[in-house]
Amino acid sequence: MTMPTHYYLARLTLECVTPLSIGTGRGDGVFDVQLVTDANGLPAIPGTSLAGVLRHLFKRAGGNDDLLFGHAGKTSTLASRLEVSWGVLCNSKGRAAEGLLPQGELDDDPLLHHAAGLAEQPLIRERVRITHRGAAADKGKFDRSILPAGYRFAAELALWGTPADSAEWQRLLDLLNDPAFRLGGATRAGLGALRVVTCHTRTFDLTTPNDAAAFRKLGRRADDLTGLDRIELAANTRRRVIEIELKPNSYWRIGQGNLPQSPDDNGKSADLLPRLEQRVLWNEGKGALAKAKRHLLVPAASIKGALSHRIAYHYNRFSGQFAEDMADEAIAGYDKSAANRAVRTLFGFAKGDAAGQAGSLLIDDIYLDQYTADKNLQLVMHNAIDRFTGGVRNHMLFSEEMVWKVPISFKITVLDDAVLDDPDIRRALDAAIADLCEGRLALGGGAGKGHGFFQGTRKDNPFSTGAAA
Length: 469
Prior knowledge:
The chain is α+β, with helices and mostly antiparallel strands and about 475 residues long. Helix content is about 20%, strand content about 30%. The longest helix is centred in the middle third of the chain and has 19 residues, at about 300-320. It is globular, with a radius of gyration of 25 Å. The two termini are about 50 Å apart.
């Protein structure tokens, strides 16, 4: 093996575009997923998470991953030449919170104080898996702890190599701009999207005195950028993107929130609330939680769930699979994630009889801030009528805080065009999107009351009639 003469270094600042949920792999008896934290109790990105995702993307892009990331086989082993640091949380001034910090420093910084407090009071995303009958599946209710969107991390990549590794190094860095570069859990349900805020690099030629001296003086902190050059990474345009703009017909409410914005005349808040969530906003290098105005959240999981059910319906229709041809036992145990090829191909499936597979469609969580609480959040009263007497049932009067006429725009990124090779899958995806844009598919709760229906436009051509057909 050629002795390395060059040291490729990149120091990164990564920002969570959507909430991050890198779990420990176990719950705490109350919540199902705990966030990975460092010695300060701050959420962190393990180097293994970063390296694992980069290796997968590097291999998918045609690179020889063994040469950079090493391997351990029965007959040969090779150490990794790539060194990946932990991602360290940044404070409100954008500095990496490295090392064991005094408690006073954690308490004084608002971002670190909030992040450290998530261990005791986690921010939770509740999830539920819905069956083809529209009810919650058995054991399908769970939750995930998350770090709010907008938090930043400092991380470092380093490669020991030769001048011949320059192209592979650049290919590796460009992957950081790939839409598939996501970390943690539920990345196919809107979480874990990251963007590169800054990337500073330098290649040290250790055979030259100047670079060798600069290498010896190199600071160890992940945010020490002395002697490094800032570069802009190439935009990734390889992925097919479906852009959809929806205008609501009337009210909609997605998710269950706990932050009332529009109490009634007696000061009572609504019983059912839309989901609002804080995020970190950055201005001139300083970050702050948006406390004054919380952001209306549309979880990607709600869009993904609605589309997957409708895609399953259309695929069964196009491929001639009807319930009338199935035995009662088969209908009772039907699971679209196991039985429907379109759903398995587009949205993935968990490990079972076969190895699991991640989904091929990406949808990000959506934050909406172009609304006013007085105008766009309105109380709607409900009651239940006794079917025998025609009167109001006891204790069945409740209110709902609904979103009025706030439009939604989102993108669906197709990670692998090969999943669209099946004409029935293409037609099913097109038909489900058309249903959403033409008011036949609702998002969120209250569809039976006429809520959650939209009229919209799709900016690209449907696959069935466009280039992919």
